[in-house]
Structures are given as structure tokens and as C-alpha cells.
Specification:
Helices cover 38% and strands 16% of the residues. It is α/β, with parallel strands linked by helices.
Length: 304
């Protein structure tokens, strides 16, 4: 298992600075953000450390040489838009850029791309599944043709009222994963598994590791703290950020020893990338760097 981090937390850094930081601090890999250049859509969105619009063989060769000299791997190249956006033009843009990221991964000799399935937040589950049947087979076929695996993150993207009522990502629970994988049964279509999203939904975050052991392509290391007193006050139907916060590993509710033990049980040997979204470490770049270093120190108990 390779311990790394998600590059979105360092938006002011260049690609080279991200890799240098990883190398200097003992990280073995980095999940690199590849949003199109432009304004961020949300917190930690819109970060570009590799611009896939400019990817060519010369750029790919440069990146490969740079990471090789620093002894750092790229665990995945990633782009997290709403790939089932209800606006056809927006959706087409997102899907086409995702395909650019897939092509870029192939040019870099990589095999993992992470993203969201997406969702029309105003549709019910059945209609959202119908949208998935229409939109996603073409994307997965494109990935298969390029020998690149797509890892869909296990997050409902329902945190605040602007994502009400259904959230902006369909792939939020094991029941739904089961259905999506029955519709598209491909070894190129799997999970970017993040236990924190199961925690705040008050779900078992260990058991799915065993059921979906052949679908886990990438792992996020992010903790979550559920505040029972706040939940008691607002109820489970309130926007989830009213009763939980993302945390760095060790400061939330996840028992990381048990989590990593389960990954060891299934012989997972891929990337486990620390994802920093902890509000307590957002005041400055120095705070975010501290969050990465502290998270690595904690996770080194379980992953070296």
C-alpha cells in the first residue's frame, strides 16, 4: 500500500512544487487534480496541477521524468465534476473533459482516473439510475479502449442546501454501487473508496471493503466527526454539514487500524491518499501543510 495525498489542498503550488513537497516529506504518491483551467466551482474544486488541454507526448515525457527523479508516483489523475448534470451543455463539457483526462492518463502510462458519477439532484433514485444507463456506458467504454480504470468516489455530494434534495453524486451507498456495477460490469469501472462519507451517513465503513474488494481501485484517507448533540437538534434530514465535519485522520470517528486491517485482508496494494478538508486547518497554507504532515505521521502507524 502506498501512502500519498490529494493535490487539491495545495492549489497555489505548481505541479513541480506538489511533487517536490511529496518527495521531501516522504509521501510515495500523489493524486493529481486535472480540472480545466478556470474558476473553482466549489471548495477544493477547480484545481489544476496538470492541464490536460495542453497534454502531448513532450509534456507527458517531462512529467514522467520529473516524478521518476523525485521517486514519487502519480496514484491517479482526477477530475470531480457532475458528470450527470441536468444541463446538457454543462454535462457534455464535463464528460468531454473527463475523456481528455482519460487520454492524458494513457499518455502518462497511468491506469487510474478518479471522478464522480454525478446526479440531477432534483430526480429520484429510479430516474437517476435511468440517467446513468444513458450516460455512463459510453464513458466506461472510452476508458476501456484506453486501458484506464475509472474510480468513482463514494460521496453523495449532499452537504448544503444548494445540493438539496438528492445530492449531486449518485454513488453514495453500497446498495447503489451494487446496482451501478450490475448495469456496467467492467473491470475498468470501480470505486475510489472514502470511508468518511459512510461515517456521516451512520453506515458501516468496514463491511463494504470485503464485498467490493474487487472494485476498490483507489482509497481516500479522510476522517469525519459526527456531533450527536447537533444531530439531536437538527435531525438527519438537515444538510449534513449541520451535524458533521470532515477531519484529518485521527481526529474523527474512524478507527483507522481496523480500516487498514480490512484493506490488508483483501490484499489491497494500491494507493491510499490523504484528503484534507478539515476546516480547523484552513486558515493558511502553513496550516494545510501542517495537516498533511500530521496526517502522514498518524497514518504511518498503519502504512509505511
Amino acid at each position: 500500500m502506498k501512502l500519498g495525498f490529494v493535490s487539491a489542498i495545495l492549489p497555489e503550488y505548481s505541479f513541480e512544487q506538489v511533487i517536490d513537497f511529496a518527495s521531501e516529506n516522504g509521501f510515495k504518491c500523489v493524486e493529481i487534480m486535472c480540472w480545466p483551467k478556470g474558476k473553482a466551482e466549489r471548495r477544493y474544486g477547480g484545481v489544476t496541477h496538470i492541464d490536460m488541454d495542453l497534454m502531448d507526448k513532450q509534456k507527458a515525457d517531462y512529467i514522467f521524468e520529473y516524478i521518476s527523479n523525485k521517486n514519487v508516483h502519480i496514484s491517479a489523475v482526477s477530475y470531480y465534476p457532475n458528470n450527470m448534470d441536468p444541463d446538457p451543455q454543462e454535462r457534455q463539457f464535463y464528460n468531454e473533459h473527463l475523456k481528455k483526462v482519460i487520454i492524458g492518463a494513457r499518455m502518462l502510462g497511468l491506469h487510474n482516473v478518479n471522478t464522480f458519477v454525478g446526479r440531477d439532484q432534483n430526480k429520484n433514485l429510479s430516474d437517476s439510475i435511468a440517467d446513468f444507463r444513458k450516460i455512463w456506458p459510453d464513458i466506461v467504454k472510452f476508458a476501456e479502449d484506453n486501458d484506464v480504470r475509472i474510480g468513482i468516489e463514494s460521496c453523495p455530494m449532499y452537504f448544503t442546501m444548494d445540493e438539496w434534495p438528492g445530492g449531486k453524486n449518485l454513488a453514495g451507498s453500497p446498495k447503489i454501487w451494487r446496482e451501478l456495477f450490475s448495469i456496467i460490469d467492467s473491470r475498468y469501472f470501480g470505486l475510489n473508496y472514502d470511508p468518511s462519507h459512510l461515517v456521516w451517513q451512520r453506515m458501516n465503513y468496514i463491511a463494504p471493503i470485503y464485498e467490493f474488494k474487487d472494485k476498490i481501485m483507489h482509497v481516500h484517507i479522510k476522517d469525519a466527526q459526527l456531533y450527536q448533540d447537533r444531530l439531536d437538534d437538527v435531525g438527519a434530514l438537515a444538510p449534513p454539514l449541520e451535524y458533521h465535519y470532515p477531519k484529518i485522520p485521527g481526529l474523527g470517528d474512524i478507527q483507522w487500524g481496523k480500516f487498514i486491517s480490512a484493506l490488508r485482508d483483501i490484499r489491497y496494494k494500491g494507493a491510499a491518499c490523504i484528503e484534507i478538508e478539515d476546516y480547523s486547518f484552513e486558515d493558511s497554507l502553513e496550516d494545510r501543510i501542517l495537516a498533511l504532515r500530521q496526517s502522514k505521521a498518524y497514518m504511518n502507524q498503519f502504512i509505511l
